[in-house]
Amino acid sequence: MLYGRSQWGEDRTLLPLLLDATKGGPGVFVELGALDGDTYSNTIMLERCFNWTGVLIEANPFNFAKLRNSGRRAALVHSAVCVGIPSISMTLQGGPAAGDVRKLSKRQKRHFNLNQTVTIPCKSLVDIMADAGFHSAQFLSLDVEGAEDLVLEAADPSAFDLVMVETEGKTNGTKQRVHTLLSQAGLQPLRGLAVQLELHGPGKFGLANLQTMQPICTR
Q: What's the number of domains the chain is made of?
């Protein structure tokens, strides 16, 4: 089975940048919205093929139950990420679109039964990483259904070399706050990835000439 799992091939496209950041050695990732650890994962190829480690964070209890049985070697954390409040309310229904009720779009609210929610404790990303033994990482993958700006407010974006934020379907306000928070941390927008993403990294990184790589690792 091929290990490229990203929805739009982002893992293979970004691989040269990530390997350059670690000089070809193993690195550290943090993936928020880890789902079941396999479906649409932006980090499983790094773990299985290049011996990276890191932290997989999933707030929805049904998704996390699947994540625990995924065989992933990274630290698995069942938590929301926020600062200043002890918990959030999120949709009980699992799947890729499970999210923080406060930040769901009108389309998502029509789709979900919002009478069925669950309270999830939350911590800052800084604390979650420290608990897992990490204070920095080469790669942050962030897809939490509209709450990306709230996560970054509870994080230290400067702790990452490359930050990829899913922006498809997000409001312009959320996109602008994400852009501002990353730019304030010294991370510059990177252009050339033809998917709905906000991608930031050091100025030395450039995507314009990258081509999507073919699968290079199999089970």
A: 1
Report the relative pairing of strands 160-166 and 80-81 from DSSP bridges. unpaired
The whole-model pTM stands at 0.83
**Alpha carbon distance 143, 157 (integer Å):** 15
Q: Are 89 and 133 in contact (CB under 8 A)?
A: no
Could you tell me the two tokens for 143?
A: 């897809």
Q: Residues with Cβ < 8 Å from 85, sequence gap 6 or more?
A: 122
Do the domain assignments include residue 83? no
Handedness of CA 22, 26, 30, 35 (dihedral sign): positive
| Burial classification of residue 107, based on how many CB atoms lie within 10 Å of its CB (0-12 exposed, 13-18 middle, 19 or more buried) | exposed
- Host domain of residue 20: 10-78+125-201
Asked if residue 94 belongs to a domain, the reply is no
Asked whether the beta carbons of 162 and 198 are under 8 A apart, the reply is no
Per DSSP, the residues of 94-142 read -STT--BGGG--HHHHHHS-TTSEEEEEEE-HHHHHHHTT-S-EEEEEE
Q: What are the structure tokens assigned to 41, written together?
A: 């994962």
Backbone φ/ψ region at 71: left (φ over 0), alpha (ψ -120 to 50), beta: left
Give the CATH number of the domain where residue 185 resides. 3.40.50.150
pLDDT, tens only, 61-100: 999 999 999 999 999 999 999 888 999 888 777 565 566 6
d(CA 39, CA 7): 8
Quickly count: other Cβ atoms within 10 Å of residue 1's Cβ: 9
Closest-CA residue to 145 (of 194, 192, 88): 88
